[in-house]
């Protein structure tokens, strides 16, 4: 008798427990453990373990719900096809706000610059950041710059904090995924991770690939306008890729998730790179697509609305939430077999964002 794929487990690697590893920044299992065991307990009731862990926080004010998020960017290389650390810092934080149904209003930007970093490069990054903010309709209102000694950082790090106002009809949350929900994906996956890897390692793919880094708040606004409260959960699959994002949502909601492998939009250069290097494309980072769980009665309308936006013209259905295997994610292959899709463990592609 063949064992069910859900009953099979593989031994996990023995993890270092006294020092920070590169894998703690992967967005996978080690990242989740670091947050759960080391960082979140220090923040008190706002980070209670039974509350869903989101990419941004909602602050309720008398006139509106204000959403805040903060993120740090340490990508290597600083410049890559399709973007750079400046535009990435804007898009990453804007998208974290958008995943909570918010329209971005303001950004705070902090630079940590290593002594010896070229002023021309710093100006280039700053201009790119400014252009990206302007294109997204968000203002950089405050910030800070620190310079550290040679060897104390790796050229340039950027931290951005974003402030947004939640759309009145928006209520997306990691804990709201329900069995029966349709899983939508706004566009191709794997582009950012493969672009960074190719640029860093000089792999020289025959077909040039570029990062998908872009703001997604217009896509979210269209989805919410079409689906309202039926848009149950949103998540941008950045570090750790689609696999880690879906596992986070499944764990927070208690629902199971089934992904149809044949429905995944994977560009040919990305598929070729993953085959060559032995990577699972579902673990590869993205910076310009989102996952949405939508109640079935509004899924077609939300999908049509997403396809009307240039940022998500290639949106597709890729799966659904189910009552079976609660908290777990399963991929159904083209031949009908199933495999468990776990979170990324360790560091697959270091310094991806």
TrEMBL record:
This is Hydrogenase expression/formation protein HypE. Belongs to the HypE family. It holds the Pfam family AIRS_C. SUPFAM superfamilies: PurM C-terminal domain-like (SSF56042), PurM N-terminal domain-like (SSF55326). It comes from the Bacteria. Residues 54-165 form the PurM-like N-terminal domain. Residues 178-331 form the PurM-like C-terminal domain. InterPro entries: HypE (IPR011854), PurM-like_C_dom (IPR010918), PurM-like_C_sf (IPR036676), PurM-like_N (IPR016188), PurM-like_N_sf (IPR036921). NCBIfam families: hypE (TIGR02124).
């Amino acid at each position: 008798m063949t064992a069910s794929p859900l009953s099979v487990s593989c031994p996990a690697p023995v993890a270092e427990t006294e020092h920070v590893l590169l894998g703690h920044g992967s967005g996978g299992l080690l990242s989740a453990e670091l947050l759960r065991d080391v960082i979140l307990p220090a923040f008190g009731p706002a980070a209670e373990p039974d509350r869903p862990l989101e990419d941004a926080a909602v602050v309720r004010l008398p006139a509106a719900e204000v959403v805040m998020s903060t993120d740090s960017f340490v990508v290597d290389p600083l410049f890559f096809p399709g973007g750079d650390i400046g535009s990435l810092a804007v898009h990453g934080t804007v998208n974290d706000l958008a995943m909570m149904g918010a329209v971005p209003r303001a950004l705070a930007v902090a630079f940590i610059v290593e002594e010896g970093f070229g002023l021309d490069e710093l100006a280039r990054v700053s201009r790119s950041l400014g252009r990206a903010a302007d294109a997204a309709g968000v203002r950089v209102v405050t910030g800070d710059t620190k310079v550290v000694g040679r060897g104390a950082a790796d050229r340039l790090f950027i931290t951005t904090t974003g402030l947004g106002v939640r759309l009145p009809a928006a209520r997306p949350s990691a804990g709201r995924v329900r069995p029966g929900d349709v899983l939508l994906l706004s566009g191709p996956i794997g582009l950012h991770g493969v672009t960074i890897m190719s640029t860093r390692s000089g792999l020289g793919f025959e077909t040039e690939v570029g990062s998908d880094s872009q703001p997604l708040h217009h896509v979210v606004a269209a989805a919410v306008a079409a689906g309202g409260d039926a848009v149950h959960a949103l998540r941008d699959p950045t570090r750790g890729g689609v696999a880690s994002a879906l596992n986070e949502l499944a764990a927070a909601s208690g629902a199971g998730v089934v992904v149809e492998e044949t429905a995944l939009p994977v560009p040919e250069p990305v598929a070729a790179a993953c085959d060559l290097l032995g990577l699972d494309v579902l673990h590869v980072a993205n910076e310009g697509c989102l996952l949405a769980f939508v109640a079935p009665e509004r899924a077609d309308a939300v999908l049509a609305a997403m396809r009307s936006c240039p940022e998500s013209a290639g949106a597709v259905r890729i799966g659904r939430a189910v009552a079976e295997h609660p908290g777990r994610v399963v991929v159904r292959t083209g031949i009908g077999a199933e495999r468990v899709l776990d979170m990324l463990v360790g560091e697959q592609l270091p310094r991806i964002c």
